[in-house]
Write a structure and sequence with these properties.
Layout: H1 5-11, E1 18-21, E2 25-29, E3 37-43, H2 59-74, E4 83-85, H3 89-92, E5 101-105
Antiparallel strand pairs: 1-2, 2-3, 3-5, 4-5
Bound molecules: adenosine monophosphate and zinc ion (ZN).
């Protein structure tokens, strides 16, 4: 049985504030937002992290970035800019082991993000 919480969100077994869905991905509001706009974009397919990407599944990342661009426009943050984050693995700060990209916007972000 798949215990992955993001797979459960994809299946509708856990509620989420879903804002986008197609055959490949879904996007929903982060439960603990760190910025005025904080959306997670995930593949429906369970891929553990960016470290599990390969020639067969990496097309999903290009698609996710196209969805991010569309969502940024819809949220009115495309002109001022935004941040896309992927945390990979333990030292990368990944807490949910299902590939996801954070879309942060609505404020100015510092650098470096340490
Ligand atoms: P990361 O640290 O990159 O793995 O990010 C995981 C993100 O998932 C965090 O920002 C959490 O707030 C978010 N999160 C965890 N559970 C849920 C959930 N059930 N619905 C929405 N966001 C969630
Ligand atoms: Zn999963």
């Amino acid at each position: 049985m798949n215990e992955c919480i993001f797979c459960k969100i994809v299946q509708g077994e856990i509620p989420s504030k879903k804002i986008y869905e197609d055959d490949k991905v879904i996007a929903f509001h982060d439960i603990n937002p760190e910025a005025p706009v904080h959306v997670l974009i995930i593949p429906k397919q369970h891929i553990e992290s960016a470290n599990e990407l390969n020639e067969e599944n990496s097309y999903l990342v290009a698609h996710i970035f196209m969805v991010i661009k569309k969502l940024a426009k819809e949220h009115g943050i495309d002109k001022e800019g935004y941040r896309i984050v992927n945390n990979c693995g333990e030292y990368g700060g990944q807490t949910v082991p299902h590939l996801h990209f954070h879309l942060f916007g609505g404020k100015s972000f510092g650098w470096p993000p340490l």
